[in-house]
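Why do we care about 3D structure at all? Because function follows from shape, and shape follows, mostly, from sequence. That is the central idea of this module. The next example makes it concrete: a single protein chain, its amino acid sequence, and then its structure expressed as tokens.
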Amino acid sequence: MIGKPLNRLTAFSVAHPWIVIGLTAAITLAFASRFPGVQVDTDPKHMLPSTSPVRQYNDQVERDFALHPDVIVLGIVNETGVVNPRTLERIADLTRRIQEMPGVITRDVMSLTTIDNITVQDGTLVVRPAVETVPQSPEARNALRVALLANPLFVNRIIASDGTATAIHVPIEASANGREIASAIRALLPQEAGDDRFHLAGDPVARDTFGSEMFRQMGLFSPIAGLVMCVALWFMFRSGLFIVANMAVAMVSIIWAMGLFIGLGFPVHIMSSMSPVFLMAIATDSVHILNEFVFRFGEIGDRRRAVLDAMARVARPVFYSDLTTAFGFASLASASIVPVKVFGLLVGFGTLVILLMSFTLVPAILMLVRAERIPALRIDARGEQRPTGSRLLRLGAFCADRAKPIALVGLALLVVAGFGISRLRVNNNMVQWFKGRSEIRTADRVMNARLGGTATGEVVRRSQHARLEPQPLPSNITCRWTASRSWRQRGRICHACIATQTISLSPSMSRRRQGSLDHAAS
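And the structure:
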């Protein structure tokens, strides 16, 4: 049932090779035209479907409390102390210029020069800028330093506990590219920094830098994988056209699959960016067709008959191997993780394209090979093909003669592999995916050591009552808001049914000692 349609498809390709090649090229160009619309998505939140309760609740909390999911942190370190005229003037200038950048949420940029210092004096709530003017005298600088370090809202968030580091928190819009904004901020940094050292960190920087590096490295390693395949094919067949036939199948499958998913509006995730290498490996099915064609041509000497006979002989193995591979990858569509689902469907569709090309494009290209350019395989006295891999035959005979020892060695290796699997550790911290000495990892280490981390987590406290009365926080969280008794009596705080505690977190998501409880006013 399967053989007849495949034979007819092969016969048409053999009879009209240029038509098949032309149609394939036209369809390939149509899919390739979708590539300019590619979108990259490295946001871990988008790995969950939009209907996921976790993702929906996270989005709800961000809306309710006007939280910014993407924040870049610019750290300034000065071992002699950041409360000095030169550093404070730089902070003021950098803050102003960062606020003018497109993609930055200007009103919520937080630094020493934009944040308010809220204190209580004689029962009165006093709100003034933390740094109104840059102090010039030693006495004024010392008074400013004492005031900053006396406010628990600032310590380890805006200024280090020892006064040697501060941070500018830069929230960016959801559509902004963190890597581009980080590059723009780097361009603002002074060339002659003196004692000041600058570090850029934050999830948007790591995420968008990773996305950029992902494309760059796949653009590097995909051609390397193709080159390795070309070298291997050259040693097997010593024919440039045979190499073209195999690589054409791989490239067509990649362009069709990627073009279709880009055209359908699917963004490229981390996993789907690796699909070209997978499809290149799967496309090696055509090697069986090429090898059988060479063998048949050596027997009968007729190119057309050799193509038809070779395809008839390998049709079922190629068909079923590609079909099972396609269904195997497509089964990943049942996963709940979006990138896994997209990757499975993309590679599954690409494998079906490889199957189609095996019965159309490959026979058409073989019909264009001149008889004198077809590589010859040596035939032994019994008329059977003598494989070039005689060493593999000797290896097979060696293993067959020593089956039990080899089985025991394999079992021992399996035990070792099981031990290794038991020691696997999941690391979903994107910052840790960079090299230890990279700029992103270095900045992250400095910010974690000097301040309260570069990532935030929100703990939501709900009440069934109409009013949420003040409740003591857990012992490992310090409330940074202290209101006067008279203010409480006037009922200006704690009258919302939802409160949020913002806790500074390190990339390992361990809770820091300091946190804050923002009470919504009625």
